[in-house]
Amino acid sequence: MKKSYDFSKGKRNPYAKQLKKQVTIRLDEGTLDYFKELAEETGIPYQTLINLFLRDCAQAKKRPSMKWSATGS
Questions:
Q1: Domain for residue 3, yes or no?
Q2: What's the 3-state SS for the chain?
Q3: Taking each helix axis from N to C terminus, what angle separates 46-59 and 29-42, rounded to the nearest 10 degrees?
Q4: Which residues constitute the domain of residue 53?
Q5: Which residues of 17-45 are buried (b: 16+ CB within 10 A; e: fewer)?
Q6: Residue 47: its pLDDT value, please?
Q7: Is 30 within 8 Å of 37 (Cβ atoms)?
C-alpha cells in the first residue's frame, strides 16, 4: 500500500442517492403475513416487496383514504 493516495481526480459515488436507510416499523401480523406469502410466490424478499409497494405509493402521491377519529371522543 502507498503511504498516501491522490484523490484529486476522484468522482463521487453516483449511486449514493439510491442507498437505503434502515428504519424500524411496526406492522400488524396480517399485513406482514400477506407480504411474506407474496414473497414466497414471487421469490422476492418480503422487505423488498414492501419497499416497492411504498415507493409506488410515493411516486403516485397516493394518500390513505381512511378517516381517522380521535381516541377517547
A1: no
A2: CCCCCCCCCCCCCCCHHHCCCCCCCCCCHHHHHHHHHHHHHHCCCHHHHHHHHHHHHHHCCCCCCCCCCCCCC
A3: 100
A4: 27-59
A5: eeeeeeeeeeeeeeeeeebeeebeeeeee
A6: 96
A7: no
Summarised one tens digit per residue, pLDDT across range 14-73 is 888 778 888 999 999 999 999 999 999 999 999 999 999 999 999 999 998 888 777 765
Provide the whole-model pTM. 0.66
Q: How many Å apart are CA 52 and CA 43, to the nearest integer?
A: 14
Q: Is residue 10 part of a domain?
A: no
